[in-house]
Amino acid sequence: MKILHLIYDHVNNPWVGGGGAVRVYEIYKRLSERGHVITVISGNYPGAKDYKVNDNFEYKFVGSQKNYIISTFSYAFYTNRLLKDIHKNYDVIVEDFAPWNPIFSYKFEEYTKVILQIQLYAGLEILKKYNIIGVPFFLIEKFYPKRFKNIIVVNEVLNKKFNINGYVIPNGVDFTVENNAVFDGKYLGYLGRVDIIQKGLDIAVNSMKNIPDVDFIVAGNGKDKDKFIKLIKNIPNIKYVGKLSGEDKINFIKNTKFLLIPSRFEGQGIVALEAAAMGKPVIVSDIPELKYVVENGFGISFKSGDSVDLKRKILFLLEQPELIKEMGKKGIEFAKNFTWDKISKIYENYLLTVLQK
Q1: Mapping DSSP to helix (H, G, I), strand (E, B) and coil, where does residue 74 land?
Q2: Do 320 and 343 have their domain in common?
Q3: Per-residue pLDDT at 182
Q4: What is the CATH number of the domain that holds 308?
Q5: How far apart (Å, rounded) are the C-alpha atoms in residues 198 and 262?
Q6: Is the pLDDT of residue 13 over 80?
Q7: How far is CA 136 from CA 16, 133, 141, 144, 266, in A?
Q8: pLDDT the model gives residue 179
Q9: Is there a single domain that holds both residue 191 and residue 316?
């Protein structure tokens, strides 16, 4: 297959750099090694340059590098124009959906197979964050996906929230450990995009500043980085270490007692899977997208948006070392079913099925 994938995000994008970009890279790295030819078009950012991962897998960057707002809107505008010229060169086009930068790829379904991939639902949070300015994006999120015949979602919750019937292909991990490789841990951690509102980092800060006996270390990058650094300026037990990758990321998870995922809204949460793969429990907000953590026994939940309840759950888990170990074991077993090797084969089979319709 010749596959064109459209996603604003990229793993090195300093404004976003989220799980969607990780998913794209991990899946297509494997598909390209099986002979498929992939082009990924992403949004431009400072320092971005077109490059090849291997002979069959390339990234191209479109739009402005000036700032996040101009970058995301210019990406949508120029990618749509580019698609008019190149859509016939590909067997399958996959558009990663975000209400901020729709590409309208469904207009080309007459000529090639088009798939919408959905990883996140923001809903009313858009209006809470942006007020009247958010109305167009709220409406795009509500109605845009229904224009597509073929849709991939990362979990069944998204089907219910969007009122669609997408094909569920979850996220994955590229490492797991055995029980005897699990460390006790020294600190509590957060790993992911630094987006204060979506990721609930303000909730975590309000909880942890009242628990001075343990450090809370935040790793990641994002458009709210500077705001977050100011937010924790006078809180000695909260530290920010920037973006981590590769062995640094693995060692970061390895040395946590457990991780916090206090998101107000989420997709599936790759970090939850990565923590499980390392035998580390997670405390998650009680949103439906993260319910699987509790259901599969490798974490507990707190009332979304409630820093007092999060503090209560943190203190509870800190006092339960045996429970932490038991949850860690369950996490490892759960993660073994969600490796990127397995996920990429499911993804490949779905694309081939759509192509054969």
Answers
A1: helix
A2: no
A3: 77
A4: 3.40.50.2000
A5: 9
A6: yes
A7: 21, 7, 9, 11, 21
A8: 60
A9: yes
